Every structure is written in C-alpha cells, then in structure tokens.
Amino acid sequence: MNVLAKNGIGKSSAENDQMKKLHQLVIDAIKEEKLIIDKLQHPPEELFTKGQKLSDKVAQFGGSWKFIILFMVILTVWIFYNVSMGGKEKFDPYPFILMNLILSCIAALQAPIIMMSQNRQEDKDRKRAEDDYLINLKAEIEIRNLHQKINLLMEEQIDKLMKTQEMQIKLLQQLLKKDNQEQLKKIT
C-alpha cells in the first residue's frame, strides 16, 4: 500500500508539471493569436497620394445612387430647358451636341479613375486573401499541434494505466500468495 501512495504522489507532481507546460503553451498561443487579430483589426495605414484619394472618392461617388439620381436630374433639366425655351435662350438645341460632348468627357475621365481605384481595391483584396491564407494555415498548424498533444496525452494515460494495472496485478498476486500461504498453514 505504501508503494501505491508513493507512486500516486509522484504521479500527481508529474501530472502537475505536465499541466503547467500545457497551460503555458495555451497562454503563448493565445498571446500570439491576439497579435494576429490586432494586426488584422488595425492594419498599418497605407499612404495614398492626393490623386489616389481623389480617384477613390470619385469611384465611390460614381458608383452610388446619389450620382445616378443627380445625373438623371441634371440631364432631365438640361433636356427640358433646351426643348422648352425658345430662341436665343437655348444653349444646346435638340441634337444636344454640347451635352453629348460633356457626357463623353465625363465618361473618358471617369473610366480610368474608376480603373485606378479598382486596381487599388484589387491589391487590398489580394492582401486580405494572403492574410486569410496565413490565418487558415496557422489554424491548421494549431489543429495538428492539438492532435499531437492529445495523442501524446492519450499515450501517456495508457502507459500510466498499464503501469497501474501491472502494479495492481502484482499486489493481487502478492495477496493471493499470502492468502494461499495462510490457507496452507491452516491445512497443515
């Protein structure tokens, strides 16, 4: 019985050491995860030129309902004014050549500006995809590490159970020997 008590105390301190190590690994992983999350939530500010900022704002405005509604109102007023007014007050009569020229110029300027903005957005999306890949890779590595740790813990538990079972068998054999010896003494 003393043997079991000594082994039980030794096992508990070994288990405590192992638990401390596992606990520290978890704490380190959590700290590292916080760094990744902080990096993703607060990415470093990119320095844009004034032209890039302007192109982003133009693209944002050009792709909004505000732009569409405002543009339709201006075109309607333009057409209505030039059709309803008579004589010299018309600045762009019916085929609306001036309006077509202005619309063509707006389209010619707006298209490359929107393309520049889309290129920058594509770069941002590529960076986001790289970050997602790194996070997924880290998660996969963490999952593999956890599987290895669980397997290691299971193997250690099996070894402990086997050793405990061996000790119990030895103790039972000793008890059987003593019992058999006592039975023999009673018979003789």
TrEMBL record:
It holds the Pfam family DUF1003. Residues 136-182 form a coiled coil. Keywords: Coiled coil, Membrane, Transmembrane, Transmembrane helix. InterPro entries: DUF1003. The chain crosses the membrane at residues 63-81, 93-116. It comes from the Bacteria. This is Cyclic nucleotide-binding protein. It comes from Solitalea longa. The lineage of its organism: Bacteria, Pseudomonadati, Bacteroidota, Sphingobacteriia, Sphingobacteriales.
